[in-house]
Every structure is written in C-alpha cells, then in structure tokens.
Please model this.
Amino acid sequence: MAPNDSAQATEEDREPRAGRRMAARYAVPVAVAGVAAATIGLVPALAASGDPELPKISAQELIEKIAASDTERLSGSVKITTDLGLPSLGGLGSAAGSTFAPQGGAGASGSTADPNAKLMELTSGTHTLRVAADGPDKQRVSILDDAAEYSLIRNGGEVWAYDSATDEAYHATSPKDGKKGTHQRGDGHAGAKGAPATPQDFAEEALKASAGTTSVTVDGTTRIAGRDAYQLLVKPKQAGSTVGSIKIAVDAKTGTPLKFTLTPSSGGKAVVDVGFTKVDFARPAASTFDFTPPKGTKVTRDDDHKAPKIPEADTDAFTESGGGKVIGKGWNAVYELTTPGGADVPSAASGELPAEAQSFLDALGDKATGKFGSGTVYKTRLVNALLTEDGKVYVGAVTKDVLVKAANEAK
Model:
C-alpha cells in the first residue's frame, strides 16, 4: 500500500443412533452463531461529539501502528451488540436442550459456568463486559447482568469461571505458552481460547483474515471512551462476501483498537459491534485475577480444557487443516466439515426431530441443489452454512451462491 490516506491493499486475489444425528442437525445453527461470535466482532455507547484534529496518517501507517501496539495491561468496560438475524429460540423449550446453550444452560461439562456454553449469550442482544488484562497470563472478563455476574479468570495456568446466578464454578488448567513473553491473542481472556473479548482481538482477526483481498483506507477521526482515535475502514474487494465493511477506531496514542463495527453487505444496522465505554491503560490490581469459590459453590473440574478450533484459509485450493477443508481464500473462504459419522439429515417427518426444532430450522433454511446433491442453507446476517444430505457442512461469511459453488467444487 502506498503511504497516503487513501491507500488500499490491492493484492488480488449413517450414524445408527438418532441421538447423534439429532445433535449433528442441531449443531448447524449453533455453529453458524459460534463462528460469528468467535472470529469477527461485537459496540459501545456513542462516542463524544466532535472529531479531534490529529496528524495525517496513511492506511499503511495506521495498520503498522496497530501491529506495533504492545498494550498488554488495561482495564475497562466494553459494550457488545450483536444482531445475526436469528429467529427467537422462544417456544423450543427443552427441545433444544443444552446444544443451543441458552442463558443459564449447561455446556459439555455439565456446568452452567462452562465458558463454551456461556459464550453463546454474546451471539444476540446487548451485553456489558468488564475486562482486565496484565500480560499474557492474567486476564479477566465479566459479563454483567441486572442481578448476576459471570466471570472468566485466567491467572497463570489456572482458569476459573463463576456464575453467580447458579452459584456454580468451572475450573480448568491452561497449558502455558511455550513462547515466554509472547502474548497469544485469543489464548488469554480467562483461557477461553478462540473467544476474543476486546476490540483489539477482533481487529487482529479481521485484518489477518482479509490480507490480499481488501480495500483499506483511513476514514477520519473520532473519540471513543474519552480518547482520540483514527478510523480505519476495511472493505472486501471480492463479490460474494456477506461482510460489507469493518470500521476500527484506533487509539491515536497507543495504537490499541478501541471500537470495532461490522456492517453486512445486505445493509442495515451493524451485525456485530464492540467497543470500550471506559478504558484505563494502567496495570490492574493483582487481586483482580484472584478467585476462590464462595462456600457451598458447586465446582466442576476439567483438567483437559479445550475449545473448538476453526481451520484457517491460506490458499485457493483445498487445504487440510484441523480436520476440515478450506475452499477459496480471503473473505470468500468456505470451511468444509463433516457431521459425526457423516450422518444424513434427520427431520420431524422421520420422528428424529421435535416439531418445534424443525420449525426453528425451517425458519433459518433455504433448500439448495447442485452437483453435490441437495441440502439446506441456514442463514444469518453474517455467517451462512450449507448442510448437505450426505452429512457435509459448508460454512462461511459468504452468500448462498458461494456456498453452493464450493460444495460443487468439492465433488
């Protein structure tokens, strides 16, 4: 990119048992929401009026400023708003079970404090988080509700999660990073690997995913959480992406992203939006990362705490990565996965799905056919997934046409 304000990145770019089959079907809309929550982003209260006067900076220089930011100590409040366009889960009742991980629902460990279950709450609505970090081994994220608080705390190799609403705690050990002194984004934040919680985490994921297929410009200045910031505007150059644009507010002094807003290509309000309403770059008190379960708390222990890993796309060919394939590149990357045992699609007609669950899935889905056979495309405003009759899943932040094309190419 040339060093000027309009610089652009122009480089071109049959399981036998019904239970498991039901789980495979239920997992599709959950995976759609989960990918969106884990890989792209989530916005805060409105910034103060009036754009600050700041020295001119090019897009290249601003990206380099983000990359050079060494902020590892901060605390503050983050406001998250997410609108994936999912229909209401109301009426499903117990039919969805823990698979949908609703508020207060237990995760795979059986504990309501399990981070893998609690994360699903951030896929819709507005939430306020309190965050703190002190280097690569100490992080805390708390989700604040009207009458309860859920906290994830990482302190060295110890990971704790506590749900005050149910008085349950989750305890796990987190393998220490072999690269001493290197902060692994996404590995912090209370050990919830792959679950970013601040604008910087989301910005780094977006810029990493967009390399070579993107227009990047500086879009003026703003104020976020009382701090002067530049605005970086990122737009896909490829047709077929559901991402319209990403705007990142970058702290003028530290280079730390303060706000991240993702708008869909279909238009309308932001799909997902995350930003600081308060931020302090001083070292948090050491006690912030201490945790002892209150007396009488039910504690679930997991000595092998692992979070799902999404394969990365780095070529336009099929790439074996993390047990799946990647088709395409950049914003049009499509992930090919396989349901457990390659199970085919259960339905209410076959007696393998409750009628309420079938109705929910039908509200999300469109039928699709092609060289791959037939299947259903489950839609949100950001991430879409094609589930074929032979148990393949194609998922990405792309349109239905791109998913069908990818499924055809996989044959």
About this structure: The chain has two domains: 18-302, 319-409. The chain has six helices and 19 strands. Residues 1-49, 89-105, 177-195, 304-322 have pLDDT under 50 and may be disordered.
